[in-house]
Design a protein that fits this description.
The chain has 252 residues and is mostly helical. It folds into two domains: 2-28; 60-238. Helices cover 80% and strands 0% of the residues. The protein has helices at residues 2-33, 41-123, 132-149, 154-162, 173-232. α2 (41-123) packs antiparallel against α5 (173-232) and α3 packs parallel to α5 (173-232). The longest helix has 83 residues, at 41-123. The chain is rod-shaped and about 140 Å long. 21% of the residues are buried.
């Protein structure tokens, strides 16, 4: 019994010695890690406080960078969403421009067919005995009716009412209709070409808008990855909150 007790006492002493040696080693390592000239307790406390302050400053800087990255990701997402809506409007404008081209082409064909009928009527026109005043009034009524149908431009109507640029009120009504039909063909073909130009411009604007959406969506992916990387290096309690609903849902 005495032998066992002595053995336990000896082992306890050995353990205490080893703990003391380990503690001395830790203290020595800590002392070696201290900067030159920092040896007194007050100096060590000041050094530890400075280290903690520096760590807090670094964490605050990282948090600010993370917040800035998240804010940029939110802003670029809003820009991408707006660009997607713009691209959608541009596609709608393209569809409207296509419909306008078809309508303008049909109107031109109708005007050309009316010109053919006017030519046939002029070839077989019978002489009439109405006076210049009646013919001028007939020209005015016909020109105004054509303008309301969209067959004449503002300038053409003004020329017809003021009897300029080939609009002669003394001509036979059938001949006046022929001049009117020619003017309608000219106006409708001009409108058709303008519709084509509008359609071409609409497609170009749509292509630009679609390219902008793709570029911004790529930028969103990069910005979100950078923001998440900035958040991951911070302690959980210091991580800025992520904005909800960031993903761009509008189709491009």
């Amino acid at each position: 019994m005495d032998f066992a007790l002595a053995f336990l006492v000896d082992n306890s002493r050995v353990a205490v010695i080893w703990l003391a040696l380990i503690l001395l080693a830790v203290l020595a390592t800590f002392a070696l890690a201290l900067p030159t000239g920092v040896r007194r307790p007050r100096q060590i406390s000041a050094w530890l406080a400075a280290g903690a302050a520096q760590k807090r400053k670094e964490n605050e800087l990282k948090a600010a960078e993370a917040a800035q990255s998240i804010r940029y990701a939110d802003e670029i997402t809003v820009a991408a969403r707006g660009a997607a809506h713009t691209a959608e409007r541009r596609r709608e404008e393209c569809q409207q421009a296509q419909a306008a081209v078809q309508d303008a082409w049909q109107a031109y064909q109708d005007a050309d067919a009316a010109l053919g009928r006017a030519r046939q009527a002029a070839a077989y026109a019978a002489p009439e005995k109405d006076g210049p005043a009646d013919r001028a009034q007939a020209l005015r009524r016909s020109a105004q009716a054509a303008y309301r149908r969209g067959d004449l431009s503002d300038t053409q109507l003004l020329d017809a009412l003021t009897h300029r640029n080939g609009w002669d009120p003394e001509l036979h009504p059938v001949e006046q209709e022929l001049i009117l039909a020619r003017a309608a063909v000219t106006h409708r073909f001009t409108a058709y070409r303008e519709a084509l130009e509008t359609e071409d411009a609409a497609w170009k604007a749509s292509d630009i808008a679609t390219a902008a959406v793709r570029s911004l969506r790529h930028e969103v992916v990069l910005a979100e990855a950078e923001a998440e990387a900035a958040r991951s290096v911070l302690p959980p309690q210091e991580r800025p909150a992520r904005a909800a609903g960031r993903r761009v849902t509008a189709a491009a």
